[in-house]
Amino acid sequence: MKGSRKTRTTESSEASKSEEEESVTVDPSQQLTDAENIQEQVEKQERTRKKLGTFTGVFVPTLLTILGVILFLREGWVVGNAGYWGAVLIIVLAFLITTCTAISMSSFVTNTRVGGGGAFAIVSQALGLEIGGSIGIPLLISQGLAVCMYIFGFRAGWLWIFPDHPAILVDLSTIVVIFILNLISTAFAFRTQYLILAIILASLASIVMAALSGSMEYPLYHWGEFLGEKETGFKGIGFWGVFAVFFPASTGIMAGANMSADLKTPKKSIPVGTLSAIAVSFIVYLGVAYWLARSATVEELLNDYTVLIDKAYYSPAVLAGLLAATFSSALSSFIGASRILEALGNHNIIPFGKWLATRTKRGEPLYATIVTLGFTICFIFLRNLNIVAPLITMVFLIAYNVINLVVLIEESLGLISFRPLFRVHKSIPLLGFIGSIFAMFIISPIFGLIAVSFISAIYIYLMKRKLKAPFSDVRSGLFEAIAEWSAKKVKLLHGHADRAWKPNFLLPLDNVEQLMGVYRLVHHLAFPVGSVKLLGIKKKEDLRSFEKELENSSANYLKHGVFSSFSVMEEEKFSQGVIRGIQALRGAFFRPNIVFLELPKDESLHQNLFEIVDTANYSKMGVSLIVYHPQTGLGKEEVINLWISKPQKWELEMKLGNIDLAILLSYRLKISWQGTLRIFMSVKNKKEKAKAMKYLERIINLARLPCDQMEVYVDQDFFDSVKKAPYSDLTVLTLESIRNMQFLWDAREAANATCLFCQDGGGENAFA
Q1: What is the rounded CA–CA span in Å between residue 70 and residue 233?
Q2: Which residues are paired to 730 by β-bridges?
Q3: Are 400 and 436 in contact (CB under 8 A)?
Q4: CA distance 531 to 381
Q5: pLDDT at res. 1
Q6: Which pLDDT tens digit goes with each residue over 23-45?
Q7: The CATH number of 628-768 is which of 3.40.50.620, 1.20.140.10, 3.40.50.150, 3.90.180.10?
Q8: Which CATH architecture has domain 490-625?
Q9: What DSSP designation does 679 have?
């Protein structure tokens, strides 16, 4: 407990540090994990970086990414198809989805110190490195592909001015210029965007001047006919088809968040910068839509993708805006890709992680930037990204989807650790979550499924890697909340949970050697959906060492697919400790339902056994009592003989009395052993044999038992029947009366095998 308090205090103090704090010096002798060493190295570099502010680091790159190709080359087409009010509806719906995501992201970043990598950092710190990495790797690829698409858009504008320039040379020259700007310094690269912003503002001013000069001479085109595009001969297109074309315009909200590790105050800069950029760009899109609807005919809007340039007061200014917008989008995407790559390397999610995470003395991720240049050039040589372009939007949408889901989970769990400075109502992330899924499958269901499959494959791979993060996440809290919710719902249900029954064992021990004999058997009975709770009973002086031994034993069960937990009780007398444990667990929801006991050889301890079984019976817990055969043990673990007690009456009911547990455990063991199950009964006269055979047949049928052999023996003495039965590795019988100890020994000798005696707890039902 002391160690736990110390950990929480350390985490709390770290959470309260400001982003500008000095690096912490760690004693070199301290043994740290690889993840912690990387984290320490990153923190030592904090004071050497030139951090970015809200305007430079978030607002400008986000605004310039949103005001991109769609604004200059496709908004006129959107208005031509949908009309003004249709275009307004499309713009509002698209920005509603991204605004909800931006608000969710803002809420999250004001609750914690976000590391590098934008969406990757947000998802990782909430749901773990596996989910974060499964989003981060596709985001990295998408950012690289996006760089190429923006470069291709820039090239289209450039060749309009210089049609004789080789296209590949324009592309490569553009990426090299972007690389050099980034190599000089991130801050310098972002400051060049001031010039780009000025050019775009000039292009928008040219549109305003055109409006003031009388360009809006046509009546408002209210609602369109959705005729489609000239490339397909205007065969028609639906509302959602036009929405799919426009939606990428509203993405790009992660441009600033991707720079989280390079911002002076991410908690302030990301919310303020992102939401401000969205608001400004939303107004621009609405204003341009109105101007286009009043300044051009429907034919011009549908046929001329450069209508914005043609109708402007000064066309070169808008052309310059197109070049500036595509270049700035490529620059922001390139910088974002290098930061995501660095963050992935920081946590060893990709090969050569430590090398990629290394920063220069000026705080620049040099190697990550060089690698980003390499794979971006490879994408450029594809020359045609139309086939994979929808995947880019899909991956961004999935990232937005997960961000909304993260905040929705955090808000719903109500954990005290989630106390953001910018709190939002759960309806906002819920709306963003639903909207992102909707947009994915409206734009392209096929590419949506491909993207989900790709991300799922990465997640499965990373799960096998068993990554270790230097931070905690909310997954345990999420699963605990689900468990609590489920428990409450079960409590409110009427009737029994017979169909939900599974073997949950309570295994009392006073030394670990006891476990060695029953470990495999209990595992085979509990696997795969059951559980094992180890209850250690020890004197005070032996508690600590025994607790460590039980922890290792419990871990072995977990390692082999059976959920396990352990606890240790201080008690001088073993039986009293077991009774106290059963009584303490009685009120728990997730409690054991079978006490697994081994018959003690010392007859003086048998009275204690009676008390334990009586307590279990009163607490409605079943009992499995094993009596080992000293020579045969469990044999080859292949054959089970199940003896069904003769009933008081031959008519079957939904409850069999005291044989349900024996039947269920026999079935479970047959499946685990992949062995043979035989079912027997003993009667005292031949007249009862036919009834007994029919009785067993009905049990086998109703209980759906894979029985390999069924037999009824006629003997005055039950043990004579047991002796006649074929050899088994384990004989399962009902525990009729614990106080008839001689019956237990005699049954073992008659079977010449280890015997498992079962007493129902009341919750079992072999017919369920």
Answers
A1: 21
A2: 640, 754
A3: yes
A4: 56
A5: 37
A6: 334 343 343 344 445 445 545 54
A7: 3.40.50.620
A8: 3-Layer(aba) Sandwich (3.40)
A9: E
